[in-house]
Amino acid sequence: MIRVRRMRNLHKFVTVHASIHNHFNAERHLYNRSNFKLNRAAALAEWRQFSVA
Predict the structure, then answer these.
(1) Which of 49, 53, 2, 45 is nearest to 24 (CA)?
(2) pLDDT one-digit tens code per residue, 4-25
(3) Second label for 36, Cα 20 to 30 Å away, from 6, 26, 29, 51?
(4) 43 inside domain
(5) Domain assignment present for 41
(6) Mean pLDDT of 27-53
């Protein structure tokens, strides 16, 4: 666990973590492998577009 000295830093970390987690969290047990890989590739491609901009 990260030690956070200021509430502002904790808020920044949680905000970024939540957006990344929500973007990549594909409940794997609900999909077969091929669909999971397609969804994961689409999420990664979208993430790369955001990180370039």
Answers:
(1) 45
(2) 677 777 778 877 787 777 667 7
(3) 51
(4) yes
(5) yes
(6) 82
d(CA 36, CA 48): 18
| Type of residue at 31 | Y
Classify residue 22: in a domain, yes or no.
no
Indicate the pTM of the whole model.
Answer: 0.47
**Local confidence band at 31 (pLDDT 50, 70, 90 cut-offs):** confident
Residue range of the domain that includes 47: 28-53
**What total number of domains does the chain contain?**
1
